[in-house]
Amino acid sequence: MGTEAKKQIIDVGDGAAIPRKSDRGLFTAWRIAFFGAIGTIGYLVWSKPDPYLNIIKFVPDGIAVTFQVTLGAILLAIVIGLVTGLGRISKNRFFNGVASLYVEVIRGIPLLVQIFYIYYALGTIVKVPAILSAIIAMAVCYGAYMGEVVRAGIESIAKGQREAALSLGMNGRQTMIHVILPQAVKVILPPVGNEFIALLKDSSLVSIIAVADLLRRGREYASESFTYFETYTVIALIYLIITLFFSKIIGVMEERVSVNK
């Protein structure tokens, strides 16, 4: 019962469901959605090149920016999450208190407000480029969630592992680095994957501060051509394809990790 409860704790985020072969219904739905989205875009481009082909040609640089923001934010969020997670389980009251306060405050403020605050409010003190502001804001926000993922992953490791390492002469730091964290990585991989996909979708919020991501490029094309329905249909399908693609990659990684346990 205790182990199951901990697994539920670390299953956070609003990312796409991870398709697994063991879940035939979800796996079939993934294939229908993924190939259906690709087929739909292909059909639209073939049947009506103007505007659909023009939209496809207009947005690739926006896709590149979306990936740039997402990858930069997730890497920084993992680092922040690792430090926060260790702080949450620390016996040092100051370190634990700071980490806990960070998690509570950041998780209580909407991501869009954080983006505005870093870009506009702090921008009155220190001018930061829009794309860097976006990466920092998303990393700070998701770092709080990553911290809880790391905390729960570490706590899911049996106490006997720590006691055995200490009995072999390892100190607390060596035990954490060589025994606890390597096992915790296998536990936290699925929720980290979910957070990555959720962050990828939330990256669309950065278009509000003039970062030329996928959504921003779509808005620019729609405002110039007045093809709002066609443009946002393509943008939605592209986001769907990207998130489903990465959900599949994460599912494969998870299966390989499970085999190696």
From TrEMBL:
Belongs to the binding-protein-dependent transport system permease family. HisMQ subfamily. PROSITE patterns: ABC_TM1. Pfam families: BPD_transp_1 (PF00528). It comes from the Bacteria. This is Amino acid ABC transporter permease. Keywords: Amino-acid transport, Cell membrane, Membrane, Transmembrane, Transmembrane helix, Transport. It is a multi-pass membrane protein. Part of the binding-protein-dependent transport system for glutamine; probably responsible for the translocation of the substrate across the membrane. Residues 63-250 form the ABC transmembrane type-1 domain. The chain crosses the membrane at residues 28-46, 66-89, 101-122, 128-145, 226-246. The keyword Zinc-finger does not apply. It is found in: Cell inner membrane; Cell membrane.
